[in-house]
Specification:
This protein is mostly helical. The chain contains 10 helices and no strands. The longest helix is centred in the C-terminal third of the chain and has 33 residues, at 137-169. It is globular, with a radius of gyration of 17 Å.
């Protein structure tokens, strides 16, 4: 149990920093508010936990050892981010339009984790460097996933909350358009960064 603090710090740093999930949550907070973004946050947490367990069980290393799997992962992740950028560019700027749009679902957010290269890198790195030395192995994996959930959910919630707070500041159409353009650029950057 002595390596739980380094694991918690690793979980904090990797989940609070910008990435596809956090950019999408900030956008969701702005367009839909914090409460409507909760299923998106919970879906990220659930899907990421499954991915962490798979990586800790050794599946992540197997996926990363196959070049074609890495390529497909990059294609899926960047393709989805390009799709999101396209949607962000056309996000409604009026309350009536925002009601017609829907935030990402629990299921969609959970499934996106398996196409998110940053999530795979975190899962593999964390499993290789921070998996608790406990027996049986399933107990070590459970503790590893639990620490990530306890630390990660509030971290991603910060992004949705920050978006919801910005929502109040973006009452004028000009500022909403500027912010939308910035979010599109950040999403495009995330898609490009996958290939670096």
């Amino acid at each position: 149990m002595q390596n739980l603090l380094p694991l918690a710090f690793f979980a904090f740093v990797t989940t609070i920093t910008p990435g596809p999930n956090n950019i999408m949550l900030a956008s969701s907070g702005i367009w839909f508010g914090f409460v409507r973004s909760i299923p998106h946050m919970l879906g990220i947490s659930f899907g990421f936990t499954l991915l962490l367990a798979a990586c800790a069980a050794g599946i992540g290393s197997l996926v990363m050892a196959v070049p074609s799997a890495q390529f497909l992962l990059k294609v899926a992740g960047s393709g989805y981010l390009l799709y999101l950028a396209w949607k962000l560019r056309n996000m409604p700027l009026t309350p009536a339009g925002a009601v017609a749009a829907r935030p990402m679902s629990f299921r969609g957010a959970a499934m996106f984790q398996f196409a998110n290269p940053k999530a795979w890198v975190i899962g593999i790195t964390g499993a290789s460097g921070f998996l608790p030395l406990l027996q049986p192995i399933w107990w070590a994996i459970a503790v590893y996933c639990l620490v990530f959930c306890v630390v990660g959910l509030p971290c991603i919630g910060v992004w949705a909350g920050a978006g919801a707070m910005l929502r109040r500041c973006l009452r004028h159409a000009l500022w909403r358009r500027i912010f939308s353009a910035v979010m599109v650029l950040l999403t495009l950057y995330s898609a490009w960064a996958i290939w670096r």
